[in-house]
Every structure is written in structure tokens, then in C-alpha cells.
Design brief:
The protein has a single domain, classed as Lipopolysaccharide (LPS) transport protein A like domain (lipopolysaccharide transport protein A fold, Sandwich), CATH 2.60.450. Helices cover about 10% and strands about 55% of the residues. Strands 2-3-6-7-5-4 form a 6-stranded antiparallel beta barrel. The chain is elongated. It starts with a helix and ends in a 6-residue tail after the last strand.
């Protein structure tokens, strides 16, 4: 066998191996650094006040970090939304938040909890895994499991719609109620 035939077989083997390797890796596209979404800006340790169309405060947001993307949506780390209403101010917390580009929708994920103002009527709390806030409609809603607690009563169910201005709540399905009257002394 001459050296040209040996070189040809070596190149053929290298082409087969590289083609087989490329074929195996075709489904695992690794993200490239150039395609990552860039931020318009990042806020750290901030407080943001949102005004309604009538000029009154409709919501206040506190968080350690907000990142606005090129699509004008916002990703928020551990947000605290404070929503004023006729029944006092609601505080809604989560591990992560996302706000749509038009600010019509805020999605909260991970350990979402809401607390009513204890000075404005009976204290009310709710806990769920995810929640959608529609600030212009004063509405909070979820399709997931919810626990709603008021003095003497604990309700669990699937799905919640709550008007945070008027403190009206509605559990949507599989509702269970447990009464816990206070101990008489």
C-alpha cells in the first residue's frame, strides 16, 4: 500500500467520524452568548410607584433587582407589590416576578403570599405557587392550589379570583373549609 492510499483512508475515516459526531449533536443546540437577551436597564434595591389614570397611586413595587429586556418586559427578583384599596393596602410577595411590556399583567411565581392590612378589617392571607396580577382591573387570580386564611376560618381550593380593592374573594373549585373558633377563656 502506498502512502497516498493510507492518507486517503485516514482522511475518509476522519470524515466519517466527524460526520457521525455532527449528526449525534444536531439536536443539542447550545445557546450562543451573542443571542442572549440584553437588558435596556437594571434597577437594584428600588421602590417604584405606579399611578393610575386619575393620578392616584395604584401600586407600589419594592425589590432588590429589576431587569427590563429588549422586548420591554421586566423580570423582578423577590418582588413586593403593595396595592392600596378601600380595605387598606395589600402586600403580595413572591420569589420571582415578570411584568408584561404594556404593564397590564404581572406574573408571580414561587412562594406567592398575599397579606391584607390588619388595621382595615379582619386580617386575610392567601398562599399559592403562582399568581397573576391585573393592576388596572384590581384583580389577582390563579388556577393553582390556594390557601385562604381569615380569623377562625381556613379555606383551601383550586383557583382564586380576588378583587384587592374591595376585598372580595372567590375560590373556584374543590373548596374545603375548616372552622377554628377561638378558645373561650
Amino acid at each position: 500500500m502506498n502512502w497516498r492510499a493510507a492518507l486517503g483512508l485516514t482522511l475518509l475515516a476522519a470524515a466519517i467520524v466527524s460526520g457521525w459526531s455532527a449528526w449525534r449533536m444536531r439536536g443539542s443546540d447550545a445557546p450562543t452568548a451573542g443571542l442572549a437577551q440584553r437588558s435596556d436597564y437594571v434597577l437594584r434595591d428600588f421602590e417604584l410607584v405606579v399611578l393610575g389614570s386619575d393620578g392616584t397611586e395604584s401600586m407600589r413595587l419594592l425589590a432588590p433587582r429589576l431587569q427590563r429586556g429588549e422586548d420591554q418586559s421586566m423580570d423582578i427578583t423577590t418582588p413586593l407589590f403593595m396595592i392600596p384599596g378601600s380595605g387598606g393596602t395589600w402586600q403580595v410577595r413572591a420569589e420571582h416576578g415578570w411584568v408584561s411590556p404594556d404593564a397590564e399583567l404581572a406574573r408571580l411565581e414561587g412562594g406567592v403570599s398575599g397579606r391584607s392590612d390588619p388595621d382595615a378589617g379582619p386580617p386575610t392571607t392567601f398562599d399559592t405557587a403562582s399568581l397573576e396580577l391585573l393592576p388596572h382591573q384590581d384583580l389577582a387570580r390563579t388556577r393553582g392550589q390556594v390557601t385562604l386564611t381569615q380569623p377562625g376560618i381556613i379555606q383551601t381550593g383550586t383557583g382564586l379570583e380576588a378583587n384587592l380593592k374591595t376585598r372580595q374573594y372567590r375560590l373556584l373549585s374543590q373548596v374545603r373549609t375548616r372552622y377554628e373558633p377561638s378558645a373561650s377563656r
